[in-house]
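To close the section, here is one more complete example, presented without commentary so you can practise reading it yourself. The ligand is zinc ion.
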Amino acid sequence: MQNISHQSATGKLVSGYLFFCPDKVTLNEALLCSAKVILCNKGGLDACPTCQQIQCGSHPDVCVYPKGDAFNTQDSKVVIEDSNKKPILAKYKLILIKDLDNSSEQSQNKLLKILETPPSNTIFLISTTNLNKVLTTIKSRLVKVEIPPFDSNCLDEIFSDYKNKEDFSLALEYGNGYIGTTLEILDDEDFMESYNLAKKIVLTMKSSAEIVNYLVPKISKNQFIRTITLMQSMYLDIAIIKAGKSTLIKNKTLLADLTTLENEFSMRALTSIIKRINEINKKQYSNVTLSLLFESLLTSILEVKYLCK
Ligand SMILES: [Zn+2]
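Output:
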């Protein structure tokens, strides 16, 4: 972002940028910020009419795509038309394209045509959460900009309205430094429940006779995924502690508890449990089978734990 600000100030902007990071909300924010930096006379740091128009989507020289859910060939067609129009108010015409990874190869190929011969005074600001799903030919036409995660002080400030929530510090811990993932946790009413369940399973489950105490009748898909993902990160942390790198663990608040489990699990058992959860996370399951799947996961964790002693 500072680069764009510098390039804008020195008149060295290129015709296209590709922003990437794992979080959509952060990327949408980055596109708007860059648009403001480029078009605002004061570097986008104020609330001037230009910045306000960009923020509410009414600036005539800032076109935002896709118009629907995903960028399609019709969008590519309109992008080509729009980018050939001269800017009305500003120095540049800005074409903002969100989530390009959601689009088909056909629409990306169509977009490529205009990126290969960009009209002067048009700048493309494109975003993706998955660089692998953007055509190499498109990537080669754009300057890639990685959006780094925010530091915790910054997020602390952004989410100050949530400070009194029980899961506030956990949300910051598990949001990986991105606004969208943090907000998702803060808005998830069941997060604490999933967290406590995952913690209980990892820290206290000892025998198959106890499994029944950890089952949730009619577990929802969201809670299922959340719980097993948290369990996975805790098992991974035990492996990290075993490897003598306890400063690198994710569940920092559980350091003391997880350290006590260090000798209960062999490295082989931990690897195998982590792999098993990965496999489950990749597949799609119906709600009906989730409870059964959860039970079989707990059984296999105990089996692996004793087999790989
Ligand atoms: Zn401004």
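Once you have examined the tokens, check your reading against these statements. The chain has two domains: 2-148, 188-307. The domain at 2-148 is CATH 3.40.50.300 (Rossmann fold).
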